[in-house]
Design a protein that fits this description.
Strand content: 5-15%
Bound molecules: arginine
Strand order of the largest sheet: 7-6-5-11-12
EC number: 6.1.1.19
Radius of gyration: 28 Å
Keywords: Acetylation, Aminoacyl-tRNA synthetase, ATP-binding, Ligase, Nucleotide-binding, Protein biosynthesis
CATH topology of the domain at 28-124: Gyrase A, domain 2
Structural class: alpha/beta
GO molecular function: arginine-tRNA ligase activity; ATP binding
Largest sheet: 5 strands, parallel
GO biological process, one term: reproductive structure development
Distance between the termini: 12 Å
Organism: Camellia sinensis
CATH superfamily of the domain at 28-124: Arginyl tRNA synthetase N-terminal domain
Number of strands: 14
Length: about 600
């Protein structure tokens, strides 16, 4: 991030929601379009009862752009059943010959055991990009089988500071929500806040002790909740009398006693305001349905499971045994109280039956994998979820690894405390601000906005570009580097393209004559299927990789094909523009705010 000659300016340009009116304009992803074409061919090639789905994959660029891989598996199905075909090769040939005429396809060839290779027509690629520029990138959006999903993410715990683990959950969950929404799925974003449990007895008792006139105490007096939590924990651990009162307070709270409910609500509200500030800075939309929300559903849900014979008695607790696991899933504790698992079962029941979700996605650290595996299995045993793999409704645990510090150990500050999220964001912003030179044309507000866009974008991208399951090292110098695979580099690349196309009048025709133009064009067209892949595998890094490759394809094109002042200027400016549009959509899906001017 070298500041002297580079200045970014945030314009007020907003990404508008799709204005796509007529459905005819919706074309779907490139892969889906190819699949449609091959489906037509398969229907004439093989008997209807086989009901085969086209298998389309990218292919070795030496042979083409894509290939259809159905011949081999079809052969194994029809072999020896009196078919006219004598092997996979002839099937492949038939698939190729039966392909309806389409301007998509330039030429086809057969390779190996009946693969049908396709070279796409570059005129068609050019036309598709041009249409996208006119009708909007939403016309490319993939359509998933699922229509309604719940994403359970962020989910911090009341009275405890949101830490870097919750940061991961927040940004991974948010980007998954954005990608699914782009893929025409209705997404219910749910904050499963830890707002219930025995720790509230301790907190409430401490509140009463500190403020005997609790009815009139205001939030300022309570102050920093984290400190409040620590102090109350200390009382709890060191004073048996206090401990007993705290346990009694839990009973009163659960019994619904007014004074206790009120104190609980007040503590939650202070916490909530803290989270909201973080969400606002990161542009996160999420609806809170905390653990307490599901309390009323727990008894009947457990009763249902009991009736189905799932619940057993074990060492005074009520549990569900899970095949292959040494310890059972406890759903009612020895003292009769409910726990994390009982709440999650009730929440799942609610999401399936009340919210009608077909796909429920939980974003937490990998440490909770066991918990999710166990209660998903319980739900299958109860018949809430189908036993098969790719059937709906389904649940997924989206686990992620640790954030490490420079020393390779769990990321902590010097005082060995967990890192506070707000401090991280403050530092990202101030580091960016320090290097963005304050020139005359910058207002303080613009400077702030740009520093936030770049700083928060860098933090998000550094997280999302890794496969979520791996641990990653948090390093400001690395993530704020303006070279390499960082948000800063990509944001600059985008801003630079914007400065090129400012000269464009946005008319004319795209022609992909040079190989680097075609390569860029094809990569642009692959955007939607990448989003689809990232959605189905729940892997945001797939989109990051695509974005980084896009900027590489663009660089190659830009250094080998003169844009401004060339005979092909109009076409090439349009290609620049399409690149900027796709980059911006990637940024949007990754929750990164683009900047426009260098
Ligand atoms: N509050 C939990 C934690 O901080 C995460 C909750 C995840 N969601 C769920 N439905 N269990 O670890």
């Amino acid at each position: 991030l070298r500041a002297t000659s580079r200045r970014l300016l945030l314009t007020t340009k907003v990404q508008t929601v799709s204005t796509m009116a007529a459905n005819e304009e919706h074309v779907g992803s490139l892969k889906q379009q190819l699949a449609k074409l091959f489906e037509a061919s398969l229907r004439t090639t093989v008997p209807d009862e086989l009901d085969v789905e086209p298998l389309i994959a990218a292919c070795n660029p030496r042979f083409g752009d894509y290939q259809c891989n159905n011949a081999m598996s079809l052969w194994t199905k029809i072999k020896g059943k009196g078919s006219e075909f004598t092997g996979p090769q002839p099937i492949g040939k038939a698939i190729m010959n039966n392909l309806p005429h389409s301007e998509m396809v330039d030429k086809c060839s057969i390779a190996g055991p009946g693969f049908v290779n396709v070279v796409l027509s570059k005129d068609w690629i050019a036309k598709s990009i041009q249409k996208m520029l006119i009708n909007g990138i939403e016309t490319w959006s993939p359509k998933l089988t699922v229509k309604r999903a719940v994403i359970d993410f962020s989910s911090p715990n009341i009275a405890k500071e949101m830490h870097v683990g919750h940061l991961r959950s927040t940004i991974i969950g948010d980007t998954l929500a954005r990608m699914l929404e782009f893929s025409n799925v209705k997404v219910l974003r749910r904050n499963h806040v830890g707002d219930w449990g025995t720790q509230f007895g301790m907190l409430i008792e401490f509140l009463f002790e500190k403020f005997p006139n609790v009815e009139v105490v205001n939030d300022q007096a309570i102050g920093d909740l984290e400190a409040f939590y620590k102090a109350s924990k200390q009382r709890f651990d060191n004073d048996p009398g206090f401990k007993e009162r705290a346990q009694q307070a839990v009973v009163s709270l659960q019994g619904g006693e007014e004074k206790y409910r009120k104190a609980w609500a007040q503590i939650c509200e202070i916490s909530r305001r803290g989270y909201q500030r973080v969400y606002q800075r990161l542009g996160i939309k999420i609806e809170e349905k905390g653990e307490s929300f599901y309390n009323p559903y727990i008894p009947r849900v457990l009763e249902e499971l009991d009736k189905k014979g799932l619940i057993e008695e074990s060492e005074g607790a009520r549990v569900i045994f899970i095949e292959g696991k040494n310890i059972p899933l406890i759903v009612v504790k020895k003292d009769g109280g409910f726990n994390y698992a009982s709440t999650d079962l009730a929440a799942l029941w609610y999401r399936l039956n009340e919210e009608k979700a077909e796909w429920i996605i939980y974003v937490t650290d990998v440490g909770q994998r066991e918990h999710f595996e166990m209660f998903f299995t319980a739900a299958k045993r109860a018949g809430w979820l189908p036993a098969g793999e790719n059937m709906y409704p389904k649940t997924n645990h989206v686990g992620f690894g640790l954030v490490l510090g420079e020393d390779g150990k769990r990321f902590r500050t010097r005082s060995t405390e967990v890192v506070r999220l707000v401090d991280l964001l403050d530092e990202a912003k101030s580091r960016c601000k320090a290097v963005l030179v304050k020139a005359d044309e910058w207002t303080e507000e613009e400077l702030d906005q740009t520093a936030e866009a770049v700083g928060y974008g860098a933090v998000k991208y550094a997280d999302l570009k890794n496969n979520r399951l791996t641990n990653y090292t948090f390093n400001f110098d690395q993530m704020l580097n303006d070279k390499g695979n960082t948000a800063v580099y990509l944001l600059y690349a985008h801003a630079r393209i914007c400065s090129i196309i400012r000269k464009s009048r946005q008319t004319g025709t795209i022609v992909l004559a040079h190989p680097d133009e075609r390569a860029l064009g094809l990569h642009l067209l692959q955007f939607a299927e990448i989003v689809e892949e990232a959605c189905t595998n729940l892997l945001p890094n797939v989109l990051c990789e695509y974005l980084y490759n896009l900027s590489e394809f663009f660089t190659r094109f830009y250094s080998n094909c003169q844009v401004v002042g060339s005979a092909e200027e109009t076409s090439r400016l349009l290609l620049c523009e399409a690149t900027a549009v796709v980059m911006r959509k990637c940024f949007y899906l990754l929750g990164i705010v683009p900047v426009y001017k260098i």
